[in-house]
Amino acid sequence: MAPRVAFAVVAGLICIVPPLFVSDLIGYLPLLLLLCAVGAAAAYLRLVGKSVAIEQRASHYEWMREEQGSVTVRLTNGSALPLVRVDAVFAVADSDGLDVSYLATSAVLGSHQSEEIGIDLSFDHVGIHQVGLVQVQVFDFLGLFSRTLRTTKMVTLRVVPRVYEIERMRLSENLSADAKRNAKSVLSDDVDYAYVREYEMGDPMKKVHWKLSARNGRQLFTKLFEAHNNPGIAILLDFYSAEKDPETLLTGFDVMLEGAFTLANHAQKNGVDVSLAFRDTRGEVQITHRCTPHELDLLIGDMPRLSDKPNPGDAAHMMTSLASNPNLQTDFYLFTTDFSASNVQALESLKREKRGVAAVAIMPPNLTEVERAQRLGAFKELSTHAIPCVWIDRGDEVWKVGVQ
Question: Among 164, 217, 286, 331, which residue carries the largest CB count within 10 Å?
Answer without folding.
Answer: 331
